[in-house]
TrEMBL record:
Biological source species: Kitasatospora paracochleata
Protein name: Peptidase inhibitor family I36
Keywords attached to this entry: Signal
Leader peptide range in chain numbering: 1-24
Length: 139
């Protein structure tokens, strides 16, 4: 095989590998369910919501997400209580992950993050308290 044919074969192989990576979807919530938002729900067959609460200590209005969402600014707190109808963007004081399989990372302004392992909850504290902007599932 000539050097030109070897180079062409190598380029074709590399192109197929790159195309395969480009088409592969990352592991995320969308691989196990549609992206939905609702009042906090714990009943999605061991794949419950990631819930945000307006107040610390899981108080006030809440919203639950089943599936990742890149922009929390599009949503408002849904249930009755302090914060109902307020935007979720930069307004949550606590979270609870009712998913027993997947953890989540909450991303906030300035590169701040909070990790929420499966079946755990947090007061968002100084790291992402009232600065949360998006989240993504992992695991």
């Amino acid at each position: 095989m000539t050097n030109l044919k070897k180079a062409a074969a190598l380029a074709a192989t590399a192109g197929l590998v790159v195309a395969g990576f480009a088409l592969a979807s990352p592991a995320s919530a969308t691989s196990w369910g549609p992206a939905i938002h609702e009042a906090c729900d714990t009943s999605h067959s061991n794949a419950g919501d990631l819930c945000f609460f307006y107040n610390s200590n899981y108080g006030g209005s809440n919203i639950g997400f089943w599936g990742a969402d890149a922009n929390l600014g599009s949503y408002t707190f849904l249930t009755s209580g302090n914060g109902q109808y307020q935007g979720v963007w930069h307004n949550a004081g606590s979270d609870a992950n009712y998913n027993t399989v997947h953890g989540a990372t909450i991303y906030g302004a300035g590169g701040r993050t909070t990790s929420v392992p499966p079946n755990t909850s947090n007061n968002l504290g100084g790291n992402t308290y009232n600065v949360q902007e998006s989240f993504a599932w992992w695991g």
